Amino acid sequence: MSKIDQDKGIVYCNRVLIGNWYEASKLEEYKLNKFLEQMKKGDLMLARYRKMGENLNKPTVLTQASSSIGFGAKISLFAPHVPASDPPVDGNNGLLLGGRISSNEINYSQALEDGCALVGYPDLEPAERSAFVITSADYCNRDNERLKYNQEFLLTLSSSLDKTPLYIRYDPNPIPGLCGMFPLYLSKHAVSNTRWRVLPVQSPNITRFEQEGQPVQVNTDVVINHCATNVNLGFNVGCWAMGFYGKICAPLMRTCLDVYGKETSNNIWQIYTPISS
C-alpha cells in the first residue's frame, strides 16, 4: 500500500494533538462559557426577540366610551380607510399607529424608549405598542374633562406613564440621514412638536369653525393635525417595509386634499375605543 493510500484513512479532529491544539481547545471552551453566560443573562438574540414580543404585544384594555372622549383616556389611533396590506386587498382596510423597535435597537433595548419610531400595523388588536393616553398640553390636570375640537393635547405612550412619559413627536426639519422613512418617533420631551389637535372632517353642511369647541366623538372620522406645522397626520400607503411581525406602513406628515379640497382617506383617523354598553 502506498503512502498516499495510507493517509486517506487518517481523519483529523480537535482531539488530535497537532499544531495549535491547546489554543483551539481553550477557544472552544471560551465560546461555550460565553454562550452559557449570554443564555443566563438573556442576551441571546432569540431571548431578546421574545422579551420584545412580550413588551410590545402585551394585550391592554382601552377606555370604554359610547360618545365623547376625555383627557386621561387610553385610546388607539385607527386609520379605517387605508389598505391594511401590500398590495391592497378589497375589504382589508385599517391600520393602527404603534411603536416599533428596529433590528439595531433590539440589541440594547427590548421596550419602547426615547427615539423609537412609530409605524402602521395591520394587527388591530389593542396592545401596549399601540395604546396612548390623551394628556393635557397646558400643564394643568384635565383628567375626565372632555376633549374638544381644536384643543391642543399630547399623545403619551400608556406603558411609559409609570416611568418616563414618551410623547408622539414630529420634527419638521429633522437632521438629514436620521429620520429616514419614519417621520414620527417617541420623545421624552414635551415640547411644541409633541402637540396635536383634532379637527372634524370637512362637511358641506357645517364648517369647522362652527364645530370648534364641541366634544370629540369616539369611533368617528376625524383629522389629526400637528399644531406646530399645521400639517395632518396620515399614512403613506405606497411606502411599506418589513418588520419583525410582517409588513409595516410608514406614517406621512402631509395634508392630502382631493379636487374638492377635502382630506383624502390617508388623513382620516378615528379615536378608537370599545363601545360601552
From TrEMBL:
It comes from the Eukaryota. Pfam families: CFAP161. InterPro entries: CF161. PANTHER family: CILIA- AND FLAGELLA-ASSOCIATED PROTEIN 161. This is Cilia- and flagella-associated protein 161-like. The lineage of its organism: Eukaryota, Metazoa, Ecdysozoa, Arthropoda, Hexapoda.
